[in-house]
Write a structure and sequence with these properties.
Blueprint: H1 2-14, H2 17-24, H3 28-42, E1 47-50, E2 53-56, H4 58-67, H5 71-82, E3 90-96, H6 109-115, E4 119-125, H7 132-135, E5 139-143, E6 153-165, H8 167-173, E7 188-191, E8 197-198, E9 200-205, E10 211-215, E11 220-222, H9 225-233, E12 239-242, H10 243-252, E13 256-257, E14 262-263, E15 266-273, H11 279-293
Parallel strand pairs: 3-4, 3-5, 7-11
Antiparallel strand pairs: 1-2, 5-15, 6-12, 6-13, 6-15, 7-8, 9-10, 9-14
Length: 296
Amino acid sequence: MYDDLFLFIKVAQFGSFTKAAKELGIYQSTISRRILSLEESLGSKLIIRTANHFELSKQGQQLYQNLMGQESLIQSKIFSALKNEDLIFGEIRVMLPHALPLHIITPKIPEFLAKHPHLKARIYYQNHEINLQKDYIDLAVVYGLPEQQAQRVKLIHRAELVAVCTPEYIEQYGYLTNPEDIDQHQIIVVLRDHGEIISRANVINNKTQQITTINVNYTLATNNFVHNLELVDTGKFIAVFYASTVSSALKSGKYVRVLPDYSFGKLDFYMLKRVPDDPKINAFANFIEECLATPS
C-alpha cells in the first residue's frame, strides 16, 4: 500500500491526475487505477472527480493532512522493503557546474538512465547560487561552500586547476614557464555569470612553495569553460581548466601544460540534496560520487 499512498500524496499535491502523471513519468490511467485500489483497500472515497472538477473528500483531506510531507519517507520505505531498482521512478532535477562533468559525468549519464528506465532527468548546467527549495532542484553540485543553506552539504570533489595551450601557440608566442612573463601571453580570464572578472590569481611554486600573485592584462574574458576549449584549439590563447577536463588532451600531446612548475590550487565542490531520503535523489548522488571517484 505504500506505493499507492505515495501516488495519492502526489495527486493531492498537484490537484490533478494529469500533472501528477507528468511529474512522475507514468501513465495517468495507472495512477487512476492505483488510487481506486487504495480507496477500495481503505473502504473510503478519497477523491471526488468529474470531467471538470477535482477535490479531496473529507476522508481524503484527513488522510492527506496526516501524510503531508511524508512522500520521501514512503518512497524510501518502498525501496528499502523491496530492494528493487525499478522503484526509482519519476523525474529528478539536477544542477551541475559547466565544466567539471564534461568528461567524467556527462558521458556516463546514458548508462545510468539505462539502469533506471522509469526515471527521467532534467539536468541544468550552470554555476550560479542555488536555493533548492525555491528553485525546486532535487540535487546540486556547486563550487565553494554554499551560504545560508538549510540543507546538508557534502564535500565530494577537490578539482586541480591547470593552465594549457596548444603546441601551435608555443610556436607563435613562446612557452610560458615563468609567472613574470605573463604579460607577454594571451590569457583567457574568468567572467562570472554576474559580471565579475577574475584576472588575478595566486600560483604556488611546487619546489619552493613560494606564492606568487599574477595579474593578467587580458584581452578576452568568458564565462564558459567549454567554449574556452574551442578558443584554446585556435592556437591563440592559454586558458585554465580542471585537470580532469584536459587530462586526455595533455596525454595525447594536443595540449601542453604551461607554468608546469606551479600549482593553481584546487577548487572544492559540494553536493546538496533537497531531501535526504529520496531513492531517486540518492541514486543519482551515488552515481555522481562514483564518477568522481573513478574519473577515467
